[in-house]
């Protein structure tokens, strides 16, 4: 099933009097239960593409179709709704609310979805348990390790049952052991039938994905299935 | 509707958490509003107290009284030199007037003089001494603590008797045993026949009976000024407030006759009444009100600017938080609501604390100006503080709501 269809989208930024073409002409499809890595050196447009895919920004030209809805024409509030219901973000810097505990951080998207308090708590707790943080529910981010913080972020991304999980360098701020744990978590999420888009510049991380899209100078350079995908050991024993 | 309540509730919870995390700053910011609300409430309370004092003071004059005088008390249309050039109103005029007037229930002359009163070594300087006759009592609402007013015989015979106002009696006879004792006024002995009960309308200044003394009008002429010098006032009391206009008409007619004015001459006397005083007082109180509320309003305004400033800082500081919230689906309205409710809470809190201060301080003020914080100023204070919060928080909240999530997330 087709979730995302992008046709000839471009993004042009105005920097002073100069026009910067971050994306020139990108077309791609992403189907349900795909595990896609978007790769490219800095300046290749992968951040811009991620912002497009995540409905944080709209393209300057072309068509972005998300589950049959034309995102290119949406206003800010409609975009917010799409992000809330359809997309789960995992960021490199975790982006948790520092003064709120893990539970509240995971609850947050449900608050904006209008889910009543009791149901929201239950779902957030479940999501935290599913990432192996059942004993860290009331901890604040500064009381958690980097890996634990990223797990909270993953729980927050999963709690709304989104159509896609969008992870931007999710292991960038973690040591390799912890990074591996998070990648293993993503693998489990993928195997449960979720769709994951991973933005990275590390070959080693991209190898976890089933499909790789390489960007260069605002174009898709390569788009291919990975034949020998690296499947990490499941060391998330609780799952 | 349900959705809005839900958003409001969530916004409030989020803002309370944010305030909790920044207690010191929230408290300092609130101080501006606390001071503003305290001063506004206190000022409106004090003004109400002043107004009440004036009103009761004026009411003690009696609304059905007319005062025929050479001078116009409040009418500023007639130039003062014309008033000065008017003929004096004499005791003769008073007697003729009294003979002819039918409607009034009481008519009495009065003449003011300023004297020092002495009881042995106790001295009260420059007391307003009112010379009048026995009927004066019927033109006022005076009440007695002790004794009586002087009788017709005493006033007609110009006997040396005196009735003391409450304050004067207290100064001259601290133990309260003044009745039947003698006091001295410019060397002349006067017997105290009565002491008035406390009237308490301090705003009337010298016109407060508490600081006055009353003697037969004949004594004023006999001892303190000659018959030919100085004009008297004729106090006229209508049977009831509804009759005041009729009595006024009659009074003007009779006075014109008494004064021998022909039809083409204008009145050479003025009919003064409480209404004129009321107009005057209402004007004065109105000016005090506007000036007072304007000045205290300024302090509230300064407080509001403080709130706006701190909210801008808060929005800037939490740019990343705003980015996170937007990324995971917060709509503009949700962010707007979050910051608006934050500033509203700060201001409401300030409003409540300010109210408490105002109530406490009004108890202090109450010691010398009877007043209490009215229920409507409580409501007003809460509404004003809420509005201040919403108005001063709007610009910062709006700037937060329209942030670009991509930019906000990138903010360090």
Structure description:
Chain A has helices spanning 46-53, 76-86, 102-113, 117-130, 146-158, 176-191, 203-206; strands spanning 2-15, 18-31, 35-39, 61-66, 69-70, 87-90, 164-168, 195-200, 211-216, 219-225. With 239 residues, chain A is an alpha/beta fold. Chain A has one domain: Rossmann fold (3-Layer(aba) Sandwich). In chain A, the strands form two sheets. In chain A, strands 6-7-8-3-9-10 form a six-stranded mixed sheet, sandwiched between helices. In chain A, strands 2-1-4-5 form a four-stranded antiparallel sheet, with helices on one face. In chain A, helix 3 packs across helix 4 (117-130), helix 3 (102-113) packs parallel to helix 5 (146-158) and helix 4 (117-130) packs across helix 5. The model of chain A has no long low-confidence stretch (mean pLDDT 91). With 412 residues, chain B is an alpha+beta fold. Chain B has helices at 2-21, 23-59, 80-85, 91-100, 152-156, 166-172, 217-224, 244-258, 274-317, 319-327, 332-365, 375-401, 405-410; strands at residues 65-69, 106-119, 122-132, 144-147, 161-164, 182-185, 188-196, 212-216, 233-237, 270-273. Chain B has a six-stranded mixed β-barrel with strand order 2-3-8-5-7-6. In chain B, strand 6 and strand 7 form a beta hairpin. In chain B, helix 2 runs antiparallel to helix 9 (274-317) and helix 9 (274-317) packs parallel to helix 12. The longest helix of chain B has 44 residues, at 274-317. Chain B is elongated, with a radius of gyration of 32 Å. Chains A and B meet through helix 2 and helix 3 of A and helix 1, helix 10, helix 11 and helix 13 of B.
């Amino acid at each position: 099933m087709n979730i995302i269809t992008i046709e000839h989208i471009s993004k042009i930024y105005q920097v002073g009097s100069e026009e910067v073409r971050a994306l020139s002409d990108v077309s791609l499809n992403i189907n349900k239960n795909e595990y896609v890595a978007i790769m490219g050196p800095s300046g290749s447009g992968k951040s811009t593409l991620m912002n497009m895919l995540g409905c944080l920004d709209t393209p300057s030209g072309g068509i972005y179709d998300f589950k049959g809805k034309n995102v290119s024409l949406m206003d800010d509030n409609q975009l917010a709704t799409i992000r809330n219901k359809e997309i789960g973000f995992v960021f490199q810097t975790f982006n948790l609310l520092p003064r709120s505990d893990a539970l509240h951080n995971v609850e947050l998207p449900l608050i904006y979805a209008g889910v009543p308090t009791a149901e929201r708590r239950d779902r957030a707790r479940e999501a935290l348990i599913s990432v192996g943080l059942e004993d860290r529910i009331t901890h604040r981010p500064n009381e958690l390790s980097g890996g634990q913080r990223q797990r909270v972020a993953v729980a927050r991304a999963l709690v709304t049952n989104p159509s896609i999980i969008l992870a931007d360098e999710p292991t960038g701020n973690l040591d390799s052991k912890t990074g591996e744990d998070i990648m293993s978590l993503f693998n489990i999420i993928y195997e449960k039938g979720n769709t994951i888009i991973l933005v990275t510049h590390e070959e080693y991380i991209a190898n976890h994905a089933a499909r790789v899209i390489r960007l260069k100078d605002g174009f898709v350079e390569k788009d291919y299935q990975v034949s020998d995908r690296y499947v990490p050991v499941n060391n998330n024993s609780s799952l | 509707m349900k959705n809005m309540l839900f958003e409001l509730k969530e916004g409030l919870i989020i803002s309370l958490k944010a305030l909790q995390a920044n207690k010191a700053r929230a408290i300092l910011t609130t101080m501006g509003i606390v001071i503003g609300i305290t001063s506004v409430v206190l000022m409106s309370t004090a003004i109400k107290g002043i107004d009440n004092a004036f009103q009761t003071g004026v009411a003690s004059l009696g609304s059905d009284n007319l005062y025929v005088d050479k001078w116009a008390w409040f009418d500023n249309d007639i130039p003062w030199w014309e008033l000065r050039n008017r003929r004096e109103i004499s005791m003769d005029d008073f007697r003729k007037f009294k003979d002819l007037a039918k409607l009034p229930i009481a008519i009495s002359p009065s003449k003011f003089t300023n004297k020092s009163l002495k009881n042995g070594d106790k001295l009260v300087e420059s007391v307003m001494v009112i010379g009048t006759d026995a009927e004066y009592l019927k033109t006022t609402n005076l009440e007695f603590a002790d004794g009586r007013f002087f009788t017709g015989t005493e006033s007609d015979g110009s006997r040396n008797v005196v009735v003391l106002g409450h304050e004067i009696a207290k100064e001259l006879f601290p133990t309260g045993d003044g009745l039947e004792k003698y006091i001295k006024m410019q060397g002349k002995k006067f017997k105290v026949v009565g002491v008035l009960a406390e009237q308490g309308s301090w705003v009337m200044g010298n016109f407060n009976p508490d600081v006055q003394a009353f003697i037969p009008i004949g004594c004023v002429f006999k001892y303190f000024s000659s018959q030919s010098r100085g004009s008297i006032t004729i106090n006229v009391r209508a049977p009831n407030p509804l009759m005041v206009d009729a009595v006024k008409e009659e009074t003007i007619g009779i006075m014109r006759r008494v004064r021998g004015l022909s039809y083409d001459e204008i009145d050479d006397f003025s009919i003064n009444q409480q209404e004129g005083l009321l107009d005057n007082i209402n004007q004065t109180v109105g000016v005090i009100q506007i000036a007072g509320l304007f000045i205290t309003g300024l302090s509230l305004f300064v407080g509001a600017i403080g709130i706006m400033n701190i909210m801008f800082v808060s929005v800037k500081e939490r740019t990343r938080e705003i980015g996170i919230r937007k990324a995971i689906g917060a709509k503009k309205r949700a962010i707007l609501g979050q910051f608006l409710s934050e500033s509203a809470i700060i201001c409401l809190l300030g409003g409540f604390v300010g109210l408490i201060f105002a109530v406490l301080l009004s108890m202090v003020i109450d010691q010398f100006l009877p007043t209490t914080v009215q229920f409507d100023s409580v409501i007003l204070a809460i509404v004003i503080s809420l509005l201040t919060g919403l108005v001063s928080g709007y610009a910062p909240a709006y700037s937060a709501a329209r942030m670009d999530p991509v930019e906000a997330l990138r903010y360090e």
